């Protein structure tokens, strides 16, 4: 085979092994015809480093490195530069951002050795001053290819001639637990068909930028108007939630069990995150549950691009009044579940770990060593 179009081994130098990438990584790391070497940091408290089944595979070796931080910024990973100097690396994937010195040095060393280098990163997400943007442009000229999470980052980076041929969009994957719930979407609307109680769900870390207090206040207002509601929050609390409107709220705590998470979606009517939305958007839509959030998509994570107002989501103002209005739109929307069934199938296909892994290798093999 042409060495430019085939690989026998691949090295990953990644910040950590977060649990939400478990299935994507397992599809990428463990190919029968390729040896994989994974150098990973200790960024994630819950991740693949605790998954003995995945680490037991013969064709994939894991090496733990130390992440060095300055404040909350990752600035260096031990052993990475040494590995890039000593190992016979055909292709290297880095997830380090611009602040990580070891990524700068290791990437440049491998390019000088004529090796294939890929940065898997957020890219340039915002338009800032020329002085602030120029170092980022230089950084992203290092690899043969930049895999960025969003079309917005691709659009911004494409404005620079040095980067035009070095960018491709590649997002995250989701493993949807197949327990038959998707087949029941069009027949499911708990609020109108069963207890006459609107069941609202939130899944994810409870952080200040999610602004859940707005949801709790909105539910209290709906209750005063005779609309019976119950909120379930699934995820860890990162700060003490202080609100006068917690009477109808249940905090279920952390839960990473895919079967359990699928059951939460199967038994709730609508998913609401007043502030920032990321993987929750395709996760909810994939399980057939419409989403309520604010309409400024540029302030959400890239995954929020799956949300279409009036189709699988109700986008509104970031306010109590906005959330109340969006919930009332959902209540009178008689065809929402039929639309959600089609939307669910589309999202499940687009975010399939198997599909994403195939896209990943297709992009890696197509990037030229001369880029």
Describe the structure.
- Strands 3-2-1-6-7-8-9 form a seven-stranded parallel sheet. Strands 12-11-10-13-14-15 form a six-stranded parallel sheet, sandwiched between helices.
- The chain is elongated.
- The two termini are 20 Å apart.
- By secondary structure, the chain is of the alpha/beta class.
- 33% of the residues lie in helices and 19% in strands.
Percent of residues in β-strands: 15-25%
Low-confidence stretches: none
The overall strand count is 15
Q: Any idea what the radius of gyration is?
A: 22 Å
- SSE pattern, N- to C-terminal: EHEHEEEHEHEHEHEHEHEEHEHEEHHH
What is the share of helical residues? Answer: 25-40%
Overall average residue pLDDT: 87
Overall shape: elongated
Strand order of the largest sheet: 3-2-1-6-7-8-9
Question: Main sheet?
Answer: 7 strands, parallel
Roughly how many Å apart are the termini? 20 Å
| Helix/strand/pairing category | alpha/beta
Total DSSP helices? 13
Pick out its properties.
elongated; about 375 residues; single chain; six-stranded parallel beta sheet; 15 strands; alpha/beta; seven-stranded parallel beta sheet
Concise overview:
With about 375 residues, the chain is of the alpha/beta class. It has 13 helices and 15 strands.
Tell me the layout of helices and strands.
Layout: E1 9-14, H1 22-29, E2 35-40, H2 52-55, E3 60-64, E4 67-70, E5 73-77, H3 80-86, E6 91-94, H4 101-112, E7 116-121, H5 130-140, E8 145-148, H6 151-157, E9 167-169, H7 190-193, E10 198-203, H8 212-224, E11 229-234, E12 249-253, H9 258-266, E13 270-272, H10 280-286, E14 291-294, E15 313-316, H11 320-332, H12 336-350, H13 353-366
Parallel strand pairs: 1-2, 1-6, 2-3, 6-7, 7-8, 8-9, 10-11, 10-13, 11-12, 13-14, 14-15
Antiparallel strand pairs: 4-5
Helix pairs in contact: 1-13, 3-4, 8-11, 10-12
